[in-house]
């Protein structure tokens, strides 16, 4: 059995084109019938402002399947601890034997979520979009900013966070890895200027209001991955010309689209899956003035794809025993 620590995994995979391509295939597998993805296991810890997700599944034809356990405790930074942690177990799909224990401490989840946010944004935004706004100042904002910079190096990135000093620290942290971003003092003004908005917060009260979003804007919502979370005003979700989910059953149940569905403002027929758009089975943006929304609740196929990439590189580079 292969055992890899977070530092070993970080040396093997990062924000690169191969990771982005792995995530694209992970989304496509959800929609083309290759994915076997059971419902997400969820544990909430409201008294500690935390949650834990268990995601597992298999992609047809793969030699491996994975089980991922990841937690997010959002007050941890105040105590000098990281927000997220976790691990990935990889099994043989032929014998059921454990192939690898990836003690990534949440790194792969953070990385694949950032890559997924960038992939979805570039697939649905207007061609040539330059003004990108990231709403959030934590771990996910950091990774999605790097992924956007990789896929759209000419984009102008702006960051807004509820905690202004933390958002300023994020801008400095990004600069240290070669990603230039500006700090937005006001969310409404920043939204009105943005061509692409990526929300990456654990908010339980909507942050982005419908009136602030201009025709032609694309929004990728990352934060609403469990019950009680919501980053976008319900009216904005209902107003959108195109609503796309990484996995529709999850999004309508506990993602960003759930409140609009519960209010009777949208139905499953009013939404599509990202994999179907990426694979060409469903059209994406139809008009430069369309408002488009991608809701990413996180899918097990992303974890499988990243684990597969880690194992391949570990084997090729001799890291694996």
What does this structure look like?
- The chain is of the alpha/beta class and about 325 residues long.
- It has two domains: about 1-110 and about 300-315, ornithine cyclodeaminase, domain 1 (2-Layer Sandwich), CATH 3.30.1780.10; about 125-295, NAD(P)-binding Rossmann-like Domain (Rossmann fold).
- Helix content is about 35%, strand content about 25%.
- The protein is built from eleven helices and 15 strands.
- The protein has helices at about 5-10, 15-30, 105-125, 140-150, 165-175, 185-195, 235-240, 250-255, 260, 275-280, 300-315, and strands at about 1-5, 35, 40-45, 50-60, 65-75, 85-90, 100-105, 130-135, 155-160, 180-185, 195-200, 220, 240-245, 270-275, 290-295.
- The strands form two sheets. Strands 10-9-8-11-12-15-13-14 form an eight-stranded parallel sheet, with helices on both faces. Strands 1, 2, 3, 4, 5, 6 and 7 form a seven-stranded mixed sheet that branches.
- The radius of gyration is 18 Å and the shape is globular.
- The model has no long low-confidence stretch (mean pLDDT about 95).
């Amino acid at each position: 059995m292969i055992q890899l620590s977070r530092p070993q995994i970080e040396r093997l995979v990062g924000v690169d084109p191969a990771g982005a391509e792995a995530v694209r295939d992970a989304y496509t597998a959800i929609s083309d019938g290759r994915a076997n993805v059971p419902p997400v296991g969820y544990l909430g810890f409201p008294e500690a402002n935390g949650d834990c997700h268990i995601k597992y599944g298999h992609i047809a034809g793969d030699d491996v399947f994975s089980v991922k356990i990841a937690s997010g405790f959002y007050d941890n930074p105040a105590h000098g601890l990281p927000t997220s942690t976790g691990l990935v177990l990889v099994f043989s799909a032929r014998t059921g034997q454990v192939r690898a224990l990836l003690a990534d401490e949440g790194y792969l989840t953070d990385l694949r979520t950032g890559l997924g946010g960038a992939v979805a944004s570039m697939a649905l935004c207007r061609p040539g979009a330059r003004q990108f706004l990231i709403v959030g100042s934590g771990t996910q904002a950091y990774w999605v900013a790097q992924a956007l910079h990789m896929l759209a190096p000419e984009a102008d990135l702006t960051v807004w966070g509820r905690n202004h000093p933390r958002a300023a620290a994020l801008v400095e942290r990004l600069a240290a890895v070669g990603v230039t971003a500006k700090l937005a003092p006001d969310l409404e003004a920043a939204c009105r200027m943005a061509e692409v908005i990526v929300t990456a917060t654990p908010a339980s009260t909507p942050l982005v209001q419908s009136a602030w979003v201009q025709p032609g804007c694309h929004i990728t919502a990352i934060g609403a991955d469990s019950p009680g979370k919501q980053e976008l005003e319900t009216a904005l979700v209902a107003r959108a010309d195109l609503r796309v989910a990484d996995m529709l059953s999850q999004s309508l149940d506990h993602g960003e689209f759930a409140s609009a569905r519960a209010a009777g403002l949208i139905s499953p027929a009013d939404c599509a899956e990202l994999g179907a758009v990426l694979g060409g089975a469903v059209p994406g943006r139809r008009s430069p003035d369309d408002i488009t929304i991608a809701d990413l609740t996180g899918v097990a196929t992303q974890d499988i794809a990243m684990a597969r990439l880690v194992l391949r590189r570990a084997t090729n580079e001799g890291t694996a025993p």
